[in-house]
Amino acid sequence: MYRAPSGMWSWLLHRITGLGLLVFLFIHIVDISIIGFGPTVYNESVHLFDQAIVRLLSLSLVACVLYHALNGLRIMAIDFWSKGVRYQKVLFVAVLAVSIVVFIPVAYVIMAQTVPCLYQFPYTVSVDH
Fold this sequence. Notes:
Blueprint: H1 6-33, H2 39-46, H3 52-80, H4 88-111, H5 116-119
Helix pairs in contact: 1-3, 3-4
């Protein structure tokens, strides 16, 4: 089984997340341009952002931004720090770990209103007297 080095995986993920950000930018430009059709059409299009699938797409955007930004810092550390190449694998693992740790609470906030069991935590019982 071929096992690629961490540098290749970080490069590949950096390119994929960069393309994801480019796609979001295009969608964002189209979304903003809808205001040219009037406030009613724009307001109706904004309601689309409350849908679960759009919230999942927002989560993927957050994941792309987190990884891409942190990996960019890793790349700068490797380029401008004389010992950066020696710690490439450690820096890659740190980028993944920080991305995941930051992503989890953001995912909760974005999905809490879509998934009722997340929004109603902790479970409470109301008693009518």
